[in-house]
Amino acid sequence: MTLTAVSRAPLAEIEAYRKRMSWRFPWASSFESEFNFDFHVSFRATDLAGESVFYNFTDLEPEQANDELPGLSAFSRNEAGEVFHTYSSYARGPEELVGTLMILDRAPKGRNEDATMNFVRRHDEYEDAPNTSACSARPAQPPSPETRNA
Fold first, then answer.
1. Exposed (0-12), middle (13-18) or buried (19+): which is 43, by Cβ within 10 Å?
2. Taking Cα atoms as reference points, which of 44, 13, 43, 42 lies closest to residue 27?
3. Using an 8 Å Cβ cutoff, are 82 and 69 in contact?
4. What residues are paired with 58 via a beta bridge?
5. Contact (CB, 8 A) for 127 and 134
6. Which among 59, 56, 39, 57 has a CA at the least distance from the CA of 48?
7. What DSSP assignment string belongs to 58-71?
8. pLDDT of 46-89, one tens digit each?
9. How distant, in Å, are the alpha carbons of 63, 82, 85 from that of 42?
10. Is the dihedral angle over the CA atoms 132, 135, 104, 102 positive or is it negative?
């Protein structure tokens, strides 16, 4: 089994971003192909100008969509080399691949987002972040005996 990300960007842009983020997973480009459109996760301006777009097995009003929406698909190849589409999940379905989101969902304020995914920052986008890894950060202090028994 192989998990491969697919993006509409040209491969050179994908490779530059992957290098910036230090990611090593397989990542393919669907640039200038119909792949994302065939699986109803990308939409052209003409799609968004219509009365509805087909996403997550239903018709959405164009105001509910963007030119790109999340999707996860699984495929199987048989001995003859034929490829079969065996599974798709859309909207919040693929979120389980990002384990951090499942942890945040259990935190007191959840994801603490004002809009969908507006809390996301890449590791090099934090202005005041110390130049250190989490492993070397100062550990949390245990409660004092006075506050522990309060």
1. buried
2. 13
3. no
4. 55
5. no
6. 59
7. EEE-GGG--SB--E
8. 999 999 999 999 999 999 998 999 999 999 999 999 999 999 99
9. 14, 25, 18
10. positive
